Amino acid sequence: MSLQHTTRMKMSLRGTKQSPQSEVETLRFALGDIIQLFTGERLMKKRKVLPPTCEFVSIIVMIGLYFVIPVARIIPTPWNLSGLLPLGIGLIMNIIASNAFERRQTTIKPYEESTYLVSNGLFGLTRNPMYLGLLLLLIGVAILLGALSPFIVVPVFVFLMNEIFIKTEEKMLVEKFGATYIAYQKQVRRWL
Question: pLDDT per position in the chain (192 positions), as tens?
C-alpha cells in the first residue's frame, strides 16, 4: 500500500472529515489492495515466498491428493510408518544446517546476501542440505500417507526449488565468493 493510500485510510479511521469522493477513492484503493493480495501480484513485490511456505503448501497439496485422488494404496499399514525415518532425518538436517548458518552469522534467507560460505559438515555432502531436508520431509509425508498420488508432489517440489531458489542463490554466491564458490560447486553436488 502506498503512503498516499495509507494516509487516506488513517484519516478515515481517525474520523477526519473527507469528501464522499475521497472516501470512495479510499475504499477503491483498499479493495484494490485486497484483490492484489488474493491474486498475489502485490504480495510477490513486497514479500518473497520462502522455502518453508512452499513446503507447507506441498504438504497440504499432498494431503488433498490423498483424500481426493488417492489412485492406489502402495504402502500398507504398518509399513507406511517407515515414513517417519525420512521425515525425522529431514527435520534433523534442517536443524543442523540452520545452526551452521547461525554459528557463522550468515543469513538463512534465500534472497539475502550471504556473509560466509558454509562448506563443511552437511554442506560437504550436499550444497543444499536444507532443501534436501525439506525434500526428505515430503517423502516421509508421502510414505506415511501410503497412496500413490502424494508422490506426484515430490518431483514438482524439486523442480520448483531448483528454479525459484537454488539457481538464484547460486548466482548470488558466485557473485559474492567467485572462484571459491565455483570450486565448491565442482567438489560438492547440488542435491546428492
Answer: 444 444 444 444 444 454 555 555 554 554 454 444 444 444 334 568 899 999 999 999 999 999 999 889 999 999 999 999 999 999 999 999 999 999 999 999 998 999 999 999 999 999 999 999 999 999 999 999 999 999 999 999 999 999 999 999 999 999 999 999 999 999 999 999
What grid cell was written down for 108? 538463512
The residue behind cell 534433523 is 92
* DSSP states along 135-170: HHHHHHHHHHH-BSGGGGHHHHHHHHIIIIIIHHHH
Helix 129-145 with 51-68: angle, nearest 10 deg: 20
Alpha carbon separation from 88 to 138, 145, 155, 166 (Å, rounded): 11, 15, 20, 23
Find cell 526449488 and name the residue: 161
Spatial neighbors of 74 by CB under 8 A, at least 6 apart, are 146, 147, 148
Distance CA(31)–CA(24), nearest Å, equals: 10
